[in-house]
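2.7 Reproducibility. Because tokenized structures are sensitive to small changes in the input, we list the exact sequence used for NAD-dependent epimerase/dehydratase family protein, including any N-terminal residues retained from the expression construct. No trimming or masking was applied before prediction.
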Amino acid sequence: MRMIKDARTRHIIKLFLDMLLLSSAFVFSFIIKFEGDWGKYFKIKYVLHFLFAYIILNLVLKINLKSWRYMDSLDVFNIISTVALSNILYVLGIVFLNLAKFPMGLFSLLIIFEIGFLLMGRYIIRIKRTLMSIQRKRKCEIDKTRVLIMGAGEAGEALLMEARKNSDFKLQIIGLIDDDPEKKNMILHGKRVWGNRFDIPRLVDEFDIREIIIAIPTMRGKEIKKVYKLIDTEKVEVKILPGYNEILEGSSYLNQIRNVKVEDLLGREIIDVNSKEVANGIEGKVVLITGGAGSIGSELSRQVAKYNPKKLINIDLNENSIYFLELELKRKHPNLDIISEIGNIREKEKMEYLFKKYRPNIVFHAAAHKHVPLMEHNPEEAIKNNIFGTKNIIDLSDKYEVERFVGVSTDKAVNPTNIMGATKRVVEMLVEDKDTKSKTKFIAVRFGNVLGSNGSVIPLFKKLINERENITVTHPEITRYFMTIPEAASLVIEAGIMSKGGEVFILDMGESVKIMDLAKNLIELSGLTLGEDIDIEIIGLRPGEKLYEELLYDVKSAKKTENKKIYIAKLDDKNEMDNLVYLEKLEEKLNSHEYGRLKEIMKKMVVTFKEPEEVNKNNCEK
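Resulting structure tokens (single pass, no recycling of outputs):
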């Protein structure tokens, strides 16, 4: 009620100010027209008659309901229209009601003054408010972090525009830098482009810069590293606007500025996904994902959800993770029919119940034990879960006539040196074998380590850094191939949709990365100094661990697909497929708890399975 009264009071005050301005316009018109004799011709009733007409029109058209502070071109038009109509009514009153003998030759001058005074009054209020806002902003900026934006392109301009509109923006933008020489000294939304990246040290000292925002979504990791070398990261924090493939549509750029992650420094290329083909393959389908709460499974769920499936079923044993994933997906996709099921892929009866209940069209199988040293210590668990659990899902996909089964494999299946990798190779063999006997299209997709996944070295390194404990690396020369979780998931989905059945797809992982370099990059990103704040310890290779991961494929022999990041492996494994007969032996040893014999049988099934000591020795000799 009080707000309504306040609003009415403001409207009355604005109407009173208009009457005062219009009265002044009358006086000035008579003074200009008649100079010293204006008092002889001016009568107060002229003003009163006109104001009566203006008040009536003002109440009907409600022009003073709009804030004077935010006056635009439409408001100017409304004022001109109201003044014109008021004068027309006034003239009609003079002619037909004989209200007053007004000097008709004065009307053109009067209208100009009326419009001018009304607009001037509004602009004075607007200018006053703007000056007060600038003054408040300057006072606030004393405590704001001084920022330099790198990139005067589309993203940099968008940041500036949003910063101007957002009164709660916590940063003070000093200006921009850009490597395009033609942009130097250009003014962009009131901010100057001061130079290029090599001017950063000078500008940091000159303007006391405390933060640099990289607003170039296409910038590669190598370029970001070069920028880092120009910055004293102990004094200046570096943040980044994510790549176009990560930017959320419809969301503010300001809200998406984040700290630079180690993934940004790896120089991964932007992944192009055939979204139209993927959408056609998923839209309206029932999609089931095993391991749906895991690193890969949850990202598969997020990306599948974007393509409007009829139903999305997530299966996992981790009740907390799957619950929070469901909340996230329902929040982002309120119309999505998502179902979370707690279950173990080893329990065929429960899995069959779910397949019979939901009748999935597409199955993404991401459930697996992946931790190499732990699986070396518990080979029976790797075999139960990765082989026999997967076999359950494969057999049920065939029985319930699933259209596509997509199994997630690993680069460790290539010439495996550990139980985990060997079990994954058996999974590929099961997929290829079942595809020859089923109407369902069975495929497997291989890729390497995933940055940020639960089993990745990154979370471990970050934890050690936060605790100020030395980072542990198994060998100074150890290398791995890495891919981000969203990249891997998007390519797995596309490979599954493009498959004809029976293929083992392999994802291009780019260049291998030294784990030692990864550790150093993380230390630098954390603002610490290697050798002073924290150190790196070499602890030796773990059980089943290779020194160098082998390429997923032979570039010369692998078959290309439409997506340059996805290949089809040419595997000469016809004889190896016959070794699936050893599954019975494996099951027999599991049932009799003869776990010491499992590795021996696995070597008979997977003929490329060798001990890591032999492989590492050969690699060192090379």
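The CA atoms of residues 27 and 168 lie 45 Å apart.
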